Amino acid sequence: MSSKNGNIAENVEDVKARIEAAARKSGRNAGEITVVAVTKTVDTDRMVEAIDAGLVNVGENRVQELCSKYDKINRKCNWHLIGHLQTNKVKYIVDKVSMIHSVDSLELAREIDKRAEKVHRIVDVLVQVNVAGEDTKFGIEPAKTEDFIRELSCLRNIKVKGLMTIAPFYENPEDARYVFRELNKKFIDIKRENIDNIDMAFLSMGMSNDFEVAIEEGANIVRIGTAIFGKRHP
Ligand SMILES: *Cc1c(COP(=O)(O)O)cnc(C)c1O
């Protein structure tokens, strides 16, 4: 993949073709799948290349980096916060982001709710689930996810729009399939409950190494960095 660092527009076309193939393979419509271009460590000129190639959803995992790039990108795009979010940093991004993918505690959800009210917004959020139970990853335990979501349903300035997970890295992406399958099952189960103020619309799963498998298992948001921008050199 690092051999293709040069041409972002070409990489975007390649990713789109792979998404279409994965969608076709699983009888899905590629049009229902959103790519979030993960732009952490990527400079704003290269971000603009991806935006101009059609990827209007961009994802950052750090608050500071998101804020410093936010004013430099003079393109219309949707900002996604995909990394762990500290409660004391919510105030910096609450007026900027289209979606926060990483809600993993009631304290954080309450802070987003409070800050959203102040700026007269309703902020879309996803609940991060630690499907594989890795110590190194944030997220709610699968078995506790439904109860957690019920607790969020009373917060009127956030809107839960679905679930997100980060699969463990496997050399063979097939090995991550169980993670995506389990999250999709959880997603469907919770959706079926029709919980008040909860709109289970999005399943954010799959990254450069495993997005095709994630799509086959129902992802409708994929978060892709390396396959678009090449290897990161932080
Ligand atoms: C970095 C990151 C990605 C993208 O990873 P790639 O392997 O470069 O595609 C996706 N999701 C999250 C939460 C990330 O931090």
- State Rg: 17 Å
Give me the count of strands.
8
Identify the quaternary structure here. single chain
The CATH superfamily is identified as: Alanine racemase
**End-to-end CA span:** 17 Å
Instruction: Characterize the overall form.
Output: globular
N-to-C order of helices and strands: HEHEHEHEHEHEHEHEH
Whole-number total of structural domains: 1
Search tags:
9 helices; TIM Barrel; 234 residues; alpha/beta
Give an account of the 3D structure:
By secondary structure, the protein is an alpha/beta fold. The protein has a single domain (8-229), classed as Alanine racemase (TIM Barrel). The chain has nine helices and eight strands. The chain has an eight-stranded parallel beta sheet. The two termini are 17 Å apart. The relative contact order is 0.17. The model has no long low-confidence stretch (mean pLDDT 96). Pyridoxal-5'-phosphate (PLP) is lined by residues 38, 40, 61, 82-83, 166, 207-209, 223-227. Residues 38, 40, 61, 82-83, 166, 207-209, 223-227 line the site of pyridoxal-5'-phosphate.
